[in-house]
């Protein structure tokens, strides 16, 4: 449909949605039923994001197990390649599948992400080779395949969950179910993977080879459990009405949205730049606190550390609901608290090493405050900053830039830790966190008071003013399609 037709359709649809919320036989029954379906749609949209946290947590413990099984053959270079293969594939998946979910559809992109995660997990679980080198290369390939799907989950799940929540919930009520569908599963993934490890390790006991294979196999069941529901998923009304599948005016898009894009991308970059090294160095922190610990003991302490991320996400939802803080205020406060705690740990690191339990607690607090702020709301502001037609693309690129920050952070923090000591890594991460607060204050808009429909109408009006002509919204043929294949 043309831009003018789309604007009229927006006005009619908005009125119909308002009436639908207000009208029901007893004044509330229809509304409750609608909310049930919408909450279900939101959770289905984001459920497989737990795969990201699970895959991160699995690799932490798998590195320990492979070191026991392969000994010196599992060199530092191989350990880095196995770990980074998923990180690199994440970037590719976020960018490509962010584009796909805008141009082809949210549902189609979901099917890609689910299949890639399942296939990659199976390849890792079944990795074989006539030599150690060949076995490890199968792991690298499998991690890359799964990483491509996990990366694509971010733009697909974020856009779908927010658009579905927006249809029946207002600007504030949509946030709690959205976080429950996005960051909460991610933060739960790491402790869940650690719990799974402890259970599987208790079953296999000293058979570490069977343990790590089982961990990867279980990783395939998380996305598999919701594959049917995603297959039957329908596009949101916002997507049906506002998608641009041909001749997307990317130059006009960047002309209008360059600042929020720079703000969200910068936020992701700095957050992941400190988050991923923080997760990687957790093992070295545990070595300081509990030297010569058994594999099981390391897993138990890893569970303790990772659980603080979940607490941070829960506190973020409580603060948003009851303290009525805005999205930007929560993100900025999380960055500032992370910076302050990092400077305290860096300044008192030698004293903290004499009290290992205190060092672990402060290290866990870093994970808590990061999830309290940017960890919980980076997806919120990334979906609320852009209109439906290009939401997945700009979200995916922003998240991909974040993963690039993670790779750069790992490369920077490692030599700093080796050559100048662990305390200086805390000073650097603290400075980057404060810079993150500045970037968010400068470039990230707080559109929490606006419906996504308003953003779409504003974008349509902008395209009309710029003289762009093209089809807006899915064609009738596209809307009648029920299955992808």
TrEMBL record:
GO cellular-component term (any): plasma membrane
Domain of life: Eukaryota
Gene3D superfamilies: MFS general substrate transporter like domains
Annotated keywords: Membrane, Transmembrane, Transmembrane helix
KW Transcription regulation (keyword) present: no
Compartments where found: Membrane
Domain Major facilitator superfamily (MFS) profile per the UniProt entry, residue ranges: 41-448
SUPFAM superfamilies: MFS general substrate transporter (SSF103473)
Residue ranges of the TM segments: 109-130, 136-154, 175-204, 210-231, 257-276, 301-323, 330-349, 355-373, 426-444
Gene Ontology terms for molecular function: carboxylic acid transmembrane transporter activity
UniProt topology in membrane: Multi-pass membrane protein
Protein's UniProt name: MFS general substrate transporter
Species in which this protein is naturally found: Cyberlindnera jadinii (strain ATCC 18201 / CBS 1600 / BCRC 20928 / JCM 3617 / NBRC 0987 / NRRL Y-1542)
């Amino acid at each position: 449909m043309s831009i003018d037709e789309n604007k009229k359709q927006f006005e009619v649809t908005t009125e119909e949605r308002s009436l639908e919320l207000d009208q029901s036989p007893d004044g509330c029954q229809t509304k409750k039923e609608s909310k049930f379906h919408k909450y279900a749609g939101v959770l289905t949209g984001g459920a497989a994001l737990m795969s990201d946290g699970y895959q991160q947590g699995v690799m932490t413990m798998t590195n320990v197990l492979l070191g026991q099984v392969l000994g010196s053959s599992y060199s530092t270079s191989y350990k880095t390649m196995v770990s980074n293969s998923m990180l690199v594939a994440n970037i590719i998946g976020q960018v490509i599948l962010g584009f796909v979910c805008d141009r082809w559809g949210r549902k189609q992109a979901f099917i890609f992400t689910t299949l890639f995660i399942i296939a990659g997990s199976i390849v890792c679980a079944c990795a074989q080779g006539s030599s150690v080198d060949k076995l490890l290369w199968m792991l690298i390939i499998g991690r890359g395949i799964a990483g491509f799907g996990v990366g694509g989950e971010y733009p697909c799940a974020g856009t779908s969950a927010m658009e579905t929540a927006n249809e029946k919930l207002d600007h504030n009520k949509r946030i709690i179910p959205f976080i429950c569908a996005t960051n909460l599963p991610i933060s739960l993934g790491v402790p869940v993977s650690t719990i799974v490890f402890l259970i599987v390790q208790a079953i296999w006991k000293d058979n570490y080879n069977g343990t790590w294979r089982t961990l990867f196999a279980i990783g395939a069941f998380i996305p598999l459990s919701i594959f049917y529901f995603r297959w039957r998923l329908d596009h949101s009304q916002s997507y049906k009405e506002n998608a641009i599948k041909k001749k997307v005016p990317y130059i006009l898009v960047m002309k209008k949205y360059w600042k929020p894009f720079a703000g969200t991308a910068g936020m992701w970059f700095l957050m992941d730049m400190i988050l991923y090294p923080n997760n990687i160095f957790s093992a070295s922190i545990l070595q300081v606190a509990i030297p010569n610990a058994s594999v099981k003991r390391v897993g138990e302490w890893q569970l303790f550390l990772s659980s603080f991320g979940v607490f941070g996400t829960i506190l973020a939802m409580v603060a948003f609901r009851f303290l009525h803080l805005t999205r930007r205020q929560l993100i900025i406060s999380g960055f500032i608290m992370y910076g302050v705690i990092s400077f305290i740990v860096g300044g008192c690191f030698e004293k903290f090493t004499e009290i290992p339990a205190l060092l672990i607690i402060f290290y866990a607090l870093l994970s808590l405050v990061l999830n309290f702020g940017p960890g919980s709301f980076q997806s919120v502001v990334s979906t609320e900053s852009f209109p439906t037609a290009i939401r997945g693309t700009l979200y995916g690129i922003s998240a991909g830039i974040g993963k690039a920050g993670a790779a750069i952070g790992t490369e920077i923090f490692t030599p700093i830790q080796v050559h100048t000591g662990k305390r200086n890594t805390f000073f650097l991460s603290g400075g980057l966190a404060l810079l993150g607060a500045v970037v968010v204050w400068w470039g990230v808009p707080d559109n929490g008071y606006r419906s996504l429909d308003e953003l779409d109408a504003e974008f349509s009006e902008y395209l009309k003013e710029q003289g762009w002509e093209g089809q807006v919204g899915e064609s009738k043929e596209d809307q009648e399609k029920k299955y992808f294949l």
